Amino acid sequence: MSAGEKARATAEQVVGKAVRKVAHALHNETTAAKGAALEARGKVRASKERSKSGLGN
């Protein structure tokens, strides 16, 4: 996993989680769903990069 891709995956997870939590606090479920999707995309990206490098978890 390249450092750039790892950073991008981590950033997506962090930003997604922050957006989701703030949106829940403001009772904005549409934005919360978008934040959850961004967080999930970051997790999938990290998983994909780990599998490409052969390191597993």
Q: Your description of this structure?
A:
By secondary structure, the chain is mainly alpha-helical. 84% of the residues lie in helices and 0% in strands. It contains two helices and no strands. Helix 1 runs antiparallel to helix 2.
What labels describe this entry?
57 residues; 2 helices; mainly alpha; 0% strand
Please trace the helix and strand order, writing H or E for each element.
Answer: HH
Q: Kindly state the mean pLDDT as a whole number?
A: 89
| Category by helix and strand content | mainly alpha
The number of distinct β-strands equals 0
Report the β-strand fraction as a percent range.
under 5%
Question: Roughly how many Å is the radius of gyration?
Answer: 13 Å
Query: Which stretches of 5+ consecutive residues score pLDDT under 50?
Result: none
Overall body shape: elongated
Q: How much helix, percentage-wise, in residues?
A: over 70%
Q: What is the terminal-to-terminal distance?
A: 12 Å
- Major sheet: none
The helix tally amounts to 2
